[in-house]
Design a protein that fits this description.
Layout (H helix, E strand, L loop, with lengths): L33 E2 L4 E2 L3 E2 L4 E2 L4 E2 L4 E2 L4 E2 L4 E2 L4 E2 L4 E2 L4 E2 L3 E3 L4 E2 L4 E2 L14 H4 L9 E3 L4 E2 L4 E2 L4 E2 L4 E2 L4 E2 L7 E4 L4 E5 L20 E4 L2 E4 L2
Parallel strand pairs: 1-4, 2-5, 3-6, 4-7, 5-8, 6-9, 7-10, 8-11, 9-12, 10-13, 12-15, 13-16, 14-17, 15-18, 16-19, 17-20, 19-21
Antiparallel strand pairs: 21-22, 23-24
Bound molecules: coenzyme A and zinc ion.
Zinc ion binds next to loops.
Length: 224
């Protein structure tokens, strides 16, 4: 589902650090960074090699690392942080308080949250709480190399461990350990996943790349 990295390289041009925030008519932020003419990138913290496709909107203050792929209709709020080589598929919204580390994959229409007990901040009874984000904002971290399946919902205040795999349509309500495969609503562990993304066999060997793993105190460790 990835687009060809070189297909729009002709739209790229360099910039100095003084270049103002991008609009639809200013199409590049860094040398070899591509912003589609129909995208809006207001952040000046998008690193080289990252591609931002049509109708994506990245707010000022958002940090996006290098060589990322931000697909159509993605929305990234100003307090979100993305590492390097991250793939965000179509129609994903990444709110303040969400941190996505290097090499993470977020499937189409996956949903993040950042308020466990939401109310309209305009409602007089809760106006005071919403005056300060410390009162309501619950951070979420997706650790290096993890994947989130299409349409999964990630409740805030959770951490998805390194190389974890969240099944399509799962609802994550608790932390997910490194390399854990979780499915269902609420998401429950049903297996372990290799660094390459394949589900491990019961002997903790990867059928794809043949890496081998061991369990130590419920933590998966590579033995290769
Ligand atoms: C979870 C997932 C990784 C499991 O793949 P797998 O290891 O090959 O597992 P299997 O297909 O053999 O399924 C194992 C069991 O889990 C169930 N299962 C698989 N995917 C599931 C899902 N998303 N939700 C609930 N149960 C699921 C299967 O029905 C099967 O149950 P059973 O043994 O009772 O029949 C995969 O099904 C998945 O959801 N991948 C994400 C796909 C995606 O969203 N891609 C986005 C980019 S397009
Ligand atoms: Zn593997």
């Amino acid at each position: 589902m990835e687009r060809d990295a070189g297909s729009h390289a002709g739209g790229v041009s360099g910039r100095s650090s003084e270049t103002p925030s991008l609009t639809t008519t200013q199409q590049s932020v860094e040398s070899a960074t591509y912003v589609h003419p129909s995208a809006i990138c207001e952040s000046t913290n998008v690193d080289t090699g990252t591609r931002i496709w049509a109708f994506a909107h990245i707010l000022e203050g958002a940090v996006v690392g290098r060589d990322c792929n931000i697909c159509d209709h993605v929305f990234i709020e100003g307090g979100a942080r993305l590492g390097d080589r991250v793939t965000i598929k179509n129609q994903v919204m990444i709110w303040d308080g969400v941190t996505i580390e290097d090499d993470v994959f977020v499937g189409p229409s996956a949903i993040f949250t950042n308020d466990r007990h939401p109310r309209s901040g305009r409602m007089p009874e809760v106006g005071q709480r919403y005056a300060n984000s410390e009162n309501w904002l619950a951070p979420t971290t997706v650790c290096r190399g993890a994947s989130i399946g299409a349409g999964a919902i990630i409740l805030c205040g959770t951490t998805l461990g390194r190389y974890a795999m969240v099944a399509a349509g799962a609802i994550v309500t608790r932390d997910v350990p490194d390399h854990r495969l979780v499915v269902g609503q609420p998401a429950r562990p049903i297996g372990w996943v290799c660094i390459c993304g394949m589900t491990l066999e019961t002997n903790l060997r990867c059928p794809q790349c043949h890496r081998r793993y061991e369990l130590h105190n419920d933590l998966l460790r590579s033995v290769d």
